[in-house]
Structure formats: C-alpha cells, structure tokens
Amino acid sequence: MRRLFGSVRARATLGATLVVAVALVAAGASVLLSLRSDLIDRAGTQAERTARNVAAHLAAGTAYDDLKLDDDEEPVQVVDAHGTLVAASENLERVSGTGTGEVKPAPRQSTGSGDEDSTLEPGEIADEVAFTDGSATIDGESADYRFAALEVDVQGKGRLTVYAGASLDAEQGAVGTAQTVMLIGFPLLLGVVAAVTWLVTRRALRPVEGIRAEMAAITASEDLDRRVPVPDTHDEVARLARTTNETLAALEASVERQRRFVADASHELRSPVASLRTQLEVAAAHPELLDLEGAVEDTVRLQRLAADLLLLARLDAGERRGDARVDLGDLAVRCARGRDGVTVEAPAVEVTGSRGQLERVLGNLLDNAQRHARAAVAVTVRREGEWAVVSVADDGSGVPAADRERVFERFVRLDEARARDDGGAGLGLAIARDVAVRHGGTLTVRDAPTGGALFELRLPVV
Fold first, then answer.
1. Residue 267 has pLDDT above 80, yes or no
2. Which of 22, 89, 112, 205 has the fewest C-beta atoms lying within 10 Å of its C-beta?
C-alpha cells in the first residue's frame, strides 16, 4: 500500500477523486436542502390555501356542521379561543403538531359572544399564518403533514383558529429518490473520475518514465553523449527533458574540460620535472657539470605551474571572490614595480573583490605583455561611468582577430614554435579571465595604438 501511494499517478488519482467526492457531497447536500425547502414551501402554500378557504366560510357565517372539511382529504381542525376543538375532518383519526390532539369536536355548551382579547374585527381573517410540522392518521393511513394555523374572528363565535395540513409525502418521496440516485450515481461517477485520472496521468507521465529510464542507462554506462527523449509537446515534461539535455551537455562539456585539463596539466608538468630530474642525475654522476641556474629555473617554473593549477582548481570549486575594497591604481603600481620597460598611469579607482586574485590578474597581464613586447609596456587605470578600466598595452606583434578568444582558453599558446622555457604554460590569461568574470567584469583583447595587443580589464566600481 505504501509503495502504491508512493506513485505520482496514484496520488494524483486519489487527490482528484477526493476533490470530486467533496464537491459532489457538497453539491448533493445543497440540492437536497434546496429541494426539501422548496417542497415544504409548496406544502405550506397548499395548507395555507386550505386554511384560508375554511376561514372564509367561517367568516361568512357558515355553521360548523356545514363546513366541507373532507373534500381535499387533508386534516383540518377548527379550535376556539379556549383551545376547544369545534370542527374537524370526519375521517381524522389522530393528529399531532396542531393546537390540540383532539379529533372529535366537543359538544358546545354555549354560543359565547366572542373573545374579548381578539385583535380582529368580526369577520376578519388574519394576514399572518403560522406553520408547524406534524403528523395525522386519516382513514387508517398515517403521514407527515405541514400545518398552517390561521386566525379568524367570527360574529357570535369569537376568535377561531383554523389548522389545515398538506401532505409531505411528495417532499419525502422526491428527497428519497434524489438520495437514492446520489447514493448510486456518486460512486459510479467517482469510479469514472478515478479511471480517467489514472489513464490521463499515465499518459502524461509516460515521457517522464522514458526520461528516468534513459537517465538510469546514462548513469550505468557513464556515456554522457546520450540524451533523454524529448516529447513532441509544449508542456512541463518537454521543458524538463530539454533542461535535462542541457544539463547533460553542460556536464559532458565540464567532464571533457576536466579531462583536457588533467591531460594538459600532466603534459606541462612532465617537461620541467623531466628536465629537473635529468640535471639532478647528471649532477649525481658528475657534480662538476651541475647546472644550478637551470635547476633553479625549472624549479621556479614548476612552482609557478603548480600555483596556477591550484588557483584554477579553487576557482572551479567556486572559491568566493571576497568583498574587500581594492584600489586598482595602487595595485597596478605595485605590480609594475621592478619591471623593465613598464610605464604606469594609475589614479585611484576602487573596486570590491579579492586583492590577491586581482593582483594575480594584473601580474599575469604584465607577464604576458612583457613576454611579447619589443620594448615597452603601458599600464593605465581609469574610470568610465560605473566601470573601472585597466588597460595593459604592448608594442609587440599583437593578437590576430581570429584568435582573440582562443588566447583565454587553458593551455593555449599561439606561438607553438616558441620554446616552452620562453613561453608560459598557457594558463595566465585563462586565470585572468576567470577571475574577472567572477568579479562581475570582463577581460578582452584588441589592437593597441602602438601596434601590439591591448588587454582591457573592466570591473564594477564600488
């Protein structure tokens, strides 16, 4: 049972059935109450009509014995001001819910001149009618009735009250029939609702099951090239399938990027490690041939590469950028200090972020510019509206337009013929752009006025 109702289809069917059941019960109760009220009102109207007819005859002076009280086969009583039954239907055997339970008129002792407390004029019939529910037995048949009580003042007889009843059999029969129809029809309707909901839900969730099965197969095979089927609809399931495929594509790209990163990192690490090992093995056999300067350079290069890889790993892991206030002008001056051929024009412009990461960006841009410059590198810091702009320009050969996005990819170096010792590992610009993006900015490259490359870093100001 728990497994059954763990199904979305089962829960949807149960929920829809319960909602319809509550609605049907509420609607059925409303219909029954309305039907019963309407039929009771009709019975009351009929009883009032009979009571007014009898009252009119009494007001006209008709004697009690001359009243035709059995024409409609409904119970009728006439009671005087003292509560004495003075007239009644001849076939009335029992009655309740009226002014008296008597069914046979009592012998009259006198013909009193009337009731002094009556508010009616002689011959006047009251406007107000009182209604009560009761029962009566007529000719051996018992039934429930709606009684109307109407007062009339009769000359020489005083105030009289006429009780006339109208059968409630029609009301009870109609309400009973309606209840029977509801008791039979409601379960059938609920069954239809449950069946339709089950079928519709199964049809609607069939693509979801296809998505689940394909995802399970992808998980088992670890084949990220596969995609889940997209139904030919425009509903939430189709959007789920498309989003799932987009997620799989992003995951595949991420995994592929990670694989390339590991492969490139291994390749880049192999060269300095192999060079350093060779030098150490030669030094172990021939100490006089030790190239200490080359060993130090390989060690420094290895250290820088390891630092770059570690920073990229932290960035990929979502390292927070920080919220310190950083003066880009002061940072540019510090990064350019001690570098030959570098000029700086850097007024104070503050941004928010990680001082260490932003210093790494400027350092990488300066390293790249000095590596490609012929003689000079110019650094400028300025503010343009809501942006802080740092420009690093060199007078080298520049970057071809077709390669201005490739240079920011990891382990990409445009001059493949250059020895690795002279060039970098191809991580500096990739790190610089990653940091810029994580700080809400951009890093682009275009032609410099001096003919070389101009790298422009834009960050939002404080």
1. no
2. 22
